């Protein structure tokens, strides 16, 4: 109101207010701003300035009703602005304040601000800063809790943030565990490896990257089986890689055909099976995948997850693939995220080992064995 009056004079009234955000992606993360549309009623001003004598009387009473109206309106606006200000104050809570609020849900916002004012250094407790850091890395609260307990167990109520972080790095690395890669059988039979995961996660690309490594660098005999017949393009994509790498492909249309396809490739060292992406809600597709898994009796199954998937989507995906007894986690699109918190979450939730991570679209270069040290550092 002060700003409006400074710009337009004391007769200005607010016509409307609304919350707006800055345009573009950045705006999504910035605090909302308040846009106020205000105006001055020229009639009132001119009448006030030059009232004709004979009209003064009626003008006065007219003005009085107008003033009453305006006063009413002003009161309403005042309440509105106060409400908006309160709401804004709530949204403008800093992370430390939110942590306080999170830990004490019943605490009033005004009190949080007061506590923080008293507390010149809001992160006096290094565990709080640690918690903040990890939740910014998209780590699930449950995992953060486990870590905090684990660290406290080692160093107690340390007030050195550096000490906590040093221990945390060790604990996160422990939590991530050692990655496991494809282990070839040594009984002369081919090793059968199945790749499963949501559509578009990067199954076919990853399979081609690994095939290139095993055929070009390790000189192994490879075969592909494509069970992704939902999309013609998917088979074509695999066939293209197969041609480049000079690897045979067998396309199967029902889960029962996989045994035969595997039998056909008994002279190979490694059989890589590409499956169709499943939409989480398609029960029939999942039944088919289960049948495929049962029939294939694969030596290893890799569940692919994109590093960029949201925490809730990740939970959902893991739930749908929980029918798999044994699998390894393979994370794709590491290059597309700043912080790979999802890796820690999925590892914690499943207890399954990490394996490879893929770091770009380029076949065959953009794949590596998960580097636990780098991942831990990146999360912290
Ligand atoms: N940025 C990035 N893109 C990837 C990565 N892996 C795969 N992709 C891309 O993701 C898209 C889907 O890959 P595709 O292998 O067809 O997924 P599928 O449906 O699971 O078989 C393609 O455009 C790939 O190039 C990765 O590690 N990083
Ligand atoms: Mg595919």
Automatic annotation (TrEMBL):
GO cellular component annotations of the record: plasma membrane
Keywords, sorted A to Z: Bacterial flagellum biogenesis, Bacterial flagellum protein export, Cell membrane, Cell projection, Cilium, Coiled coil, Flagellum, GTP-binding, Membrane, Nucleotide-binding, Protein transport, Transport
CDD domains assigned: FlhF (cd17873)
Residues covered by the SRP54-type proteins GTP-binding domain: 190-380
SMART domains: AAA, SRP54
Any single biological process term in GO: protein transport
Residues of the AAA+ ATPase domain: 189-335
GO molecular function, one term: signal recognition particle binding
InterPro entries attached to this UniProt entry: AAA+_ATPase, FlhF, FlhF__GTPase_dom, P-loop_NTPase, SRP54_GTPase_dom
Keyword Calcium appears in the UniProt entry: no
Subcellular location: Cell membrane
Pfam families named among the record's database cross-references: SRP54 (PF00448)
SUPFAM superfamilies: P-loop containing nucleoside triphosphate hydrolases
Principal location listed in the UniProt entry: membrane
Coiled-coil stretches noted in the UniProt entry, renumbered to this chain: 60-87
Membrane topology: Peripheral membrane protein
Stated family: Belongs to the GTP-binding SRP family.
NCBIfam families, alphabetized: FlhF (TIGR03499)
Function: Necessary for flagellar biosynthesis. May be involved in translocation of the flagellum.
Protein name (record): Flagellar biosynthesis protein FlhF
Organism: Thermoclostridium stercorarium (strain ATCC 35414 / DSM 8532 / NCIMB 11754) (Clostridium stercorarium)
């Amino acid at each position: 109101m002060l700003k409006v009056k400074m710009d337009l004079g004391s007769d200005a009234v607010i016509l409307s207010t609304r919350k707006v955000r800055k345009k573009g992606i950045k705006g999504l993360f910035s605090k909302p701003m308040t846009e106020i549309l205000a105006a001055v009623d020229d009639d009132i001003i001119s009448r006030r300035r030059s009232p004709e004598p004979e009209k003064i009387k009626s003008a006065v009473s007219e003005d009085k009703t107008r003033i009453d109206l305006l006063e009413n309106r002003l009161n309403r606006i005042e309440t509105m602005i106060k409400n908006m200000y309160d709401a804004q104050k709530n949204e403008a809570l800093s992370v430390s304040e939110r942590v306080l609020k999170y830990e004490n849900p019943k605490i009033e916002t005004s009190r949080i601000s007061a506590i923080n004012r008293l507390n010149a250094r809001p992160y006096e407790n290094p565990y709080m800063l640690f918690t903040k850091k990890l939740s910014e890395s998209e780590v699930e609260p449950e995992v953060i809790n486990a870590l905090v307990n684990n660290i406290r167990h080692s160093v107690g109520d340390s007030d050195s943030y550096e000490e906590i972080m040093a221990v945390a790095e060790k604990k996160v690395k422990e939590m991530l565990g050692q990655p496991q890669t494809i282990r070839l059988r040594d009984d002369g039979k081919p090793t059968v490896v199945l790749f499963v995961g949501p559509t578009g996660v990067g199954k076919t690309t990853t399979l081609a990257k690994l095939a290139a490594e095993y055929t070009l660098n390790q000189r192994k005999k490879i075969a592909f089986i494509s069970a992704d017949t939902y999309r013609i393009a998917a088979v074509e994509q695999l066939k293209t890689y197969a041609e480049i790498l000079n690897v045979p492909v067998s396309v199967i249309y029902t889960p029962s055909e996989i045994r035969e396809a595997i039998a056909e490739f008994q002279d190979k060292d490694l059989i890589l099976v590409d499956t169709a992406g499943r939409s989480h809600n398609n029960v029939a597709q999942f039944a088919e995948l289960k049948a495929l898994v049962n029939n294939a009796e694969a030596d290893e199954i890799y569940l692919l997850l994109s590093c960029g998937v949201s925490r809730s989507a990740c939970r959902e995906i893991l739930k749908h693939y929980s029918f798999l007894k044994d699998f390894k986690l393979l994370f794709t699109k590491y290059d597309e995220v700043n912080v790979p918190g999802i890796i820690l979450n999925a590892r914690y939730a499943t207890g399954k080992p990490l394996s490879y991570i893929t770091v770009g679209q380029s076949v065959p270069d953009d794949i590596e064995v998960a580097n636990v040290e780098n991942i831990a550092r990146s999360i912290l």
